Amino acid sequence: MRTILAAAACIFATWLVLPHPSDAENRRALLVGIDHYDGGHAADGPSRSSSGGRRTWPNLRGSVNDATAIRELLIRRFGFRHQDVILLTDEQATRAEILEQFKRHLIDSAQPGDLSIFFYAGHGSRIRNSNSTELDGKDETIVPADANRAQADRTIIDIRDKEWDRLFTRVLDRGAKLTAIFDSCHSGSISRGAVPTAAQVRFLEEDDRDVAVLIGEEPPAHPSGQEPERREGALIISATQEDQQAKEALHRAGDQTEWHGAFTLALTEALNETAVNATADRIMRRVTAKLKAEGLQQDPAVAGAEARKRAPLFGGDPDGDVPKLRINVVRAYGPHDVDVQGGSAIGLTNGTELVSAAGAVRLRIANVRNLARSQAAVVQGDWNRLKPGDEFEVSRKGNADPAALRIWLPPAVKNLHEAEHLAAGLHDHLLQIGMTWVVEPTEQSPTHLLTWNGSEWLLHGPDGRTQKVGAAPTAKQIAERLQKERAPIRLYMNIPPSAALQRILTASIETIPNPIRLVKNSDEAQYVLLGRLSDGHVHYAWALRNPIRSAASEKADSPMPLPVHTLWGTFNDKPMDCAHGGLQSCLAGLARIHQWLSIKSSPDDRRFPYELTFRPAASTPAAGSGTLREGAYRLMLESDRETIKNIQQTWGIQQRYVYVFVIDQSGRSTLLFPNDASKEYENLIPPKGFEKKSPEHLAMIDLGDSGVMRVHAPFGVDTFILLTTAHEIQQARQLIESEAVAGSGQETRGQSDWSITRQFRRSLPANAGDGAVP
Question: What's the whole-model pTM score?
Answer without folding.
Answer: 0.76
